């Protein structure tokens, strides 16, 4: 039988209680000692481009000069995000917004960081600030955190297993970013006519968006209740959130996609190819007129540099009058298909990325709550 795992207060596993760093950094320097801030720690990694403080200022907080094996945690910024200090930051220091955890001999830094970043760990040490206007990590509460403590060998196995999943996630994130960059560069060439697809050579003509798109007010498609559910008809906004939630309402559903939804105040746009309901009347529903390919027009809108200087509705009075050069309908469709193919590749990678996150979440839950144990070789034998 696999032996039970004890839980130990974090402070008992550290060389000294968790502490914070430089309180008042003063004016940043061009050289000196790098200082890590709360916002520099995200998704288990530490960013680059850290500010510098003077050597004298760092020496005033010598207790938080970083060493190999230290773990840091964001107290604000991205509260709770933790990371093991990389070699490049040994000798650096931390700000007041960062906590320093220096593990003792019974606790591996990599295991500690994984536990702190896990839903299990975060749920515990962020519990005291739940419901507050601002989520912060309190070091006194963090020191009291009960940490499940398997042996060092199993800690290493858990950290390596979760680290392998982190590697997959990082690789997929880079692939998604690369595909997005490729699509952006390709679209800038094709949508402006600087590069032509094979078989097309005709002249382009200038047209206003109002000549290519008709608009409809969203009034009769507005959702009645914002008590959203987990499944049903999506409720949309043209902003960053896009899908606000789902409704079980069966009337007033827009069911003639595809369309472009246009935020009348911010000019944000979304291409929608499924039935939906709308949240706000500050939206226009745009459809293609004869001779215009809707997807091509949507992609072309992403290149418009429209400067917003005040808060007012934009479509009728301003945006619809913007002129752009467009090719024949056939060439529009061909360019649109290129965009769709690129988006399909990105979507496939994003699904793999979502699956990788789900796998890590599941593995974390099982390993760090001890529902699953990794066996040593001698136990397997």
Automatic annotation (TrEMBL):
The keyword DNA-binding belongs to this UniProt entry's keyword annotation: yes
Keywords: DNA-binding, Restriction system
GO terms, biological process: DNA restriction-modification system
Organism: Microbacterium azadirachtae
Entries under InterPro entries matching the protein: Restrct_endonuc_typeI_TRD, Restrct_endonuc_typeI_TRD_sf, Type-I_RS_S_subunit
Family recorded in the similarity comment: Belongs to the type-I restriction system S methylase family.
Lineage: Bacteria, Bacillati, Actinomycetota, Actinomycetes, Micrococcales
GO molecular function, one term: DNA binding
Record carries keyword DNA-binding: yes
Type I restriction modification DNA specificity domain ranges (all copies): 52-175
Name of this chain's protein: EcoKI restriction-modification system protein HsdS
Pfam families, A to Z: Methylase_S
